[in-house]
Specification:
With 230 residues, the chain is mainly alpha-helical. It is built from 8 helices and 2 strands. Strands 1-2 form a two-stranded parallel sheet. α5 runs parallel beside α7 and α5 runs antiparallel to α8. The termini are far apart.
Length: 230
Amino acid sequence: MSYIYKCNTELSIILSNRHVSTKNENCVNEADSESVHESERWNKETDIKRLLEDASLCNDPLPKNPEYVWSTSPYPEGVLLKRDQSRHFRKPNIDPRETSLVLFPGQGTQFVGMGKDLMKFPIARDLFDAANDLLGYNLREICFNGPKEELDKTVHCQPAVMVCSLAAVERLKEERPRAIESCIATAGFSIGEISALVFAGALSFEEGLLHCLLHMILVQKCSHCRWNIV
């Protein structure tokens, strides 16, 4: 009995040692695998960083032979440009599905009755009142009731589109506040560019409307000029 017990004990010790050894080998393999993955990720990020740092700035020395010059610089001659693009090589840990972009329309989207359904929002009403004072005519009346011929005039449709766009933002703030809170960028087409600047806070509403006023006056004058376009 003692011999059998001794054999069983030795076998148990051998099996136990083998189990410990196998477990240690697994730990070493996992550590090596993580180290390899970390090294690969670092090399990849370093390559991206180097690519951004070496990006063309249009200020590289030009070839001596003019025939080999394939681009012209958009910057004044002698300007030294230095862009630290490498700081952008890491992507932010943001899920795109949790963000939003706000885009503003331009001239041509106007229609009689635009903005009428936004009057239940107090700030939207204030925007129209401020626009009436700055422009010197009743923009609200033209937007709501036309006639279409008046609304389609550049001097009327551009401020109408801008004011209605910003008034619609007030509706969005009330009904879908998350869309405003998660906004990471804004842009606009034509006069919508000014709406986007106001929305982003780069311009006040009054400054934006004055820019719009200057823009629409110049566009209206140009529409009556006869130019030969080549």
